[in-house]
Design brief:
The complex is a heterodimer of chains A (about 350) and B (about 170).
Chain A lengths: L12 H12 L9 H17 L3 H16 L16 H4 L16 E2 L5 E7 L12 H10 L7 H8 L6 H5 L9 E6 L4 E5 L5 E4 L2 E4 H18 L29 E7 L5 E4 L2 H12 L2 E2 L21 E6 L4 E6 L5 E4 L6 E4 L11
Parallel strand pairs in A: 1-5
Antiparallel strand pairs in A: 2-3, 3-4, 5-6, 7-8, 7-10, 9-13, 10-11, 11-12, 12-13
Chain B lengths: L17 H20 L2 H16 L10 H20 L19 H12 L3 H12 L4 H8 L3 H18 L8
Helix pairs in contact in B: 1-2, 1-3, 2-3, 3-6, 5-7, 6-7
The chains are: A alpha+beta (about 350), B mainly alpha (about 170).
GO molecular function, one term (chain B): sigma factor activity
InterPro entries (chain B): RNA_pol_sigma-70-like, RNA_pol_sigma-70_dom, RNA_pol_sigma-E_actinobac, RNA_pol_sigma70_r2, RNA_pol_sigma70_r4_t2, RNA_pol_sigma_r2, RNA_pol_sigma_r3/r4-like, WH-like_DNA-bd_sf
Protein name (chain B): SigE family RNA polymerase sigma factor
Chain lengths: ~350, ~170
């Protein structure tokens, strides 16, 4: 059956890898019933032709799966044979990030890239600073990109630096950086400040776009790999600065949340029941697009006063903010530029009184 | 009244019937699917799903292209499956049980952990090239990508597997 002469050689990796794969695979493959398969296929075809609710069947399945997820029992996560801790094993961020003028603004090549990690500027906040321990907790709980090829793919399609656009914009002075670690042990910190021209393999990328490329790659990795981290970080109503996350409604589980006043004061943590209801709404979130033609008399104009909000932690240690719009839903701003999601619930629905 | 519909139309060109193919190749497909998914039940589900998709087109598949067509369907299903899983939809069938303790736990676990670190596309290339022994051209056809992409995916995958410690570092 196997024609070894048809191979393109890859040096000594051929027989070694082949032997390993062959040794790993179980010998006892199940026997499939061809007649039953054909019968099932015929039944499925008939169903597709007569029913209009195939999507409804899947939606029901999703709802059932959603109920199963309430207790954090993600069926996909039970597959321990493919679970990994690699995203948490990548080298951690340095204690001190360089100021923008002192940063490295170029990397010649992404060859040999092993991991990429976002290093947030936790001191860039108008509120009270996190303690040293709290900062350590935040940094230790963040997942890194270990499928490093994804970063290269995203960088290839990232927007190039536009000097004309940035001529009218002041560079946002932030020390937030991407830490690139290579197979040979080298590491490089690249700024992700918007309107910073960062040279990556000879191509000038806007620092903001570089950060988005990283989050897009991390988003893909979270689809591909099974991993999570017990949430142990702080959930401060203020003072955490901006820490980018790659969360997506319904994928990450919400594991903790606190209610905050518009002034950034904590009111109370959510109960298990309230968290369960919030998870339901999270899974049902839909893209929120503000209607520019909305009547000013509409009750759904932005409130004059800043709204109360929830600070929410996920099983991937993301920390997100859900704001009560006063229009019958909570709003979360995603990592993609312009992405806002509406969660079909309110603080009142959750039994929360700011 | 009408006669019962045959499951598969007879092939004029004497290629395998659907039943013949399943009997001859399902075990091999399952082994490949196991390397892709890392789980017995998911592998069975994947193979069954792919074969059911191919059933309706069986009579229109050229005999010499059957294997490639089925593998392409399986890999496409695998890729699509894992993407939809995180959108709240789950594949049909039984939920996977925890894998039983393997006979040779060390190698099996090491291989699965190493494969789990590869992106889906690279994982598929590794399985097709090094386990199924497909050529670069056959792999490209099965995955619907160029031969050049197969080469680059292979190179990156091998580098990752070396870094993971699964493969000994070579001096090429």
């Amino acid at each position: 059956m196997t024609d070894h002469t048809s191979h393109t050689t890859h040096g000594t990796d051929d027989p070694q890898l082949r032997d390993l794969l062959t040794a790993a695979v179980p010998d006892d493959a199940p026997t499939l019933d061809a007649a039953r398969l054909a019968r099932d296929a015929r039944t499925a075809r008939t169903r597709r032709r007569t029913a209009t609710a195939v999507g409804g069947v899947l939606a029901v399945g999703a709802t059932v799966a959603g109920v199963g997820l309430l207790g954090g029992q993600d069926p996909a996560a039970r597959d321990d044979t493919t679970a990994t801790t690699a995203p948490y094993d990548a080298p951690t961020c340095p204690a001190t990030l360089p100021e923008l003028p002192d940063a490295v603004w170029a990397v010649d090549s992404l060859d040999g890239l092993a991991s990429v990690r976002i290093c947030p500027d936790l001191d860039a906040t108008a509120g009270p600073l996190l303690s040293v321990d709290e900062k350590g907790q935040v940094l230790a709980s963040m997942d890194a990109l270990v499928q490093s090829d994804r970063f290269g793919e995203q960088v290839d399609v990232a927007e190039t630096f536009d000097p004309e656009r940035c001529a009218t914009i002041s560079v946002v002075n932030s020390r937030q950086s991407l830490q690139l670690t290579f197979d040979d042990g080298r590491s490089v910190l690249l700024p992700t400040a918007m309107c910073s021209p960062i040279s990556v393999a000879g191509r000038e990328i806007d620092g903001g776009a570089l950060g988005t490329a990283y989050l897009a790659a991390l988003d893909g990795q979270r689809d591909d790999l099974t991993y999570s981290h017990p949430f142990s970080g702080p959930l401060p109503c203020a003072g955490r600065g901006s820490v980018p996350d790659a969360a997506r409604p319904g994928r990450e589980q919400l594991v903790a949340a606190v209610l905050c006043t518009p002034d950034g004061e904590e009111v109370a943590p959510l109960s298990d029941a309230q968290l369960a209801d919030l998870n339901d709404a999270w899974r049902s979130a839909k893209e929120f697009v503000q209607d520019p033609t909305a009547d000013d008399e509409s009750e759904c104009t932005a409130p004059e006063d800043a709204p109360s909000y929830l600070v929410v932690g996920t099983d991937h240690s993301d920390v997100m903010r859900f704001s009560d719009t006063g229009c019958g839903f909570l709003v979360w701003s995603g990592w993609r530029p312009g992405d806002s999601q509406a969660l079909p619930t309110t603080l009142a629905d959750l039994g929360l009184t700011p | 009244m009408s006669e019962a519909v045959t499951v598969v139309e007879p092939r004029v060109d004497a290629g395998p019937t659907f039943e013949e193919y399943v009997a001859a190749r399902s075990a091999a497909l399952w082994r490949s699917a196991w390397l892709l998914t890392g789980d017995r039940h998911k592998a069975e589900d994947l193979v069954q799903t792919a074969l059911m998709k191919c059933w309706g087109r069986w009579s229109r598949i050229a005999p010499e292209a059957v294997e490639t067509y089925v593998r392409k369907t399986m890999v496409t299903t695998y890729t699509d499956w894992w993407r939809r899983r995180w959108n709240g939809e789950l594949p049909t069938g039984e939920l996977p049980e925890t894998a039983a303790a393997p006979v040779d736990g060390g190698i099996r676990r090491d291989v699965l952990v190493a494969l789990a670190a590869l992106p889906r596309g690279q994982r598929a290339v590794v399985v097709l090239r090094f386990f199924d022994d497909l050529t670069e051209a056959q792999t490209a056809a099965a995955l619907g990508i160029s031969v050049g992409t197969v080469k680059s995916q292979t190179s990156r995958a091998l580098r990752t597997l070396r870094t993971s410690g699964l493969l000994e570092d070579t001096h090429d």
